[in-house]
Amino acid sequence: MAKTGKPRGTLGRHPTGLRPGERLSDYKRLTIRLPPDVQGELIAASGALRRPQWRVLIAAIRAYVGSGPPLSADERRVVRAVLRLHGKTDRVGRVTG
Fold first, then answer.
1. Domains contained in the chain, number
2. Structural domain includes residue 59
3. What is the secondary structure of 14-78 as a DSSP string?
4. pTM over 0.70
5. Helices 36-49 and 53-65, interaxial angle, to 10°?
6. Residue 44: CB partners within 8 Å, gap ≥ 6?
């Protein structure tokens, strides 16, 4: 019996990397240890910017070495707001334990 109706696409998330045609599974794996406050900042930035943590890290590294744009003032404000909501910063914006 032949299938009828609309064709269905593949299930799940698209395996996209940074450039077209790349898959995330092709990238080398990196394991790092972070202090809890830095990990909280990474999680908050990832959620506030709606990007995966690996993309936040790539953007941070590129901004640090000067080959990428830094966060805009609006993006920084959103990340700080998320950190404040979760009790991870003081009034000045410094991360607390």
1. 1
2. yes
3. ----SSTT--GGGSPP------HHHHHHHHHHHHHHT--HHHHHHHHHHHHHTSSPPPPHHHHHH
4. no
5. 100
6. 79, 82, 83, 86, 88
- Partners of 89 in the β-ladder: 95
Interatomic CA distance for residues 38 and 97, integer angstroms: 9
The reply to whether 52 falls in a domain is: yes
Are 48 and 81 spatial neighbours (Cβ–Cβ below 8 Å)? yes
* Dihedral pair phi/psi, residue 83, rounded to 5°: -60, -40
Residue 26 located in a structural domain: no
In this predicted model, what pLDDT tens digit does every residue of 15-72 receive, in sequence order?
677 778 788 788 888 899 999 988 988 998 898 889 999 999 988 888 888 887 877 8
Buried b (16+ CB within 10 A) or exposed e, 71-84: beeeeeebbbebbe
Measured between alpha carbons, how far is 76 from 56 in angstroms, rounded to an integer?
12
Residue 82 Cα to chain centre, angstroms: 14
Q: Which two tokens stand for residue 45?
A: 């930035």
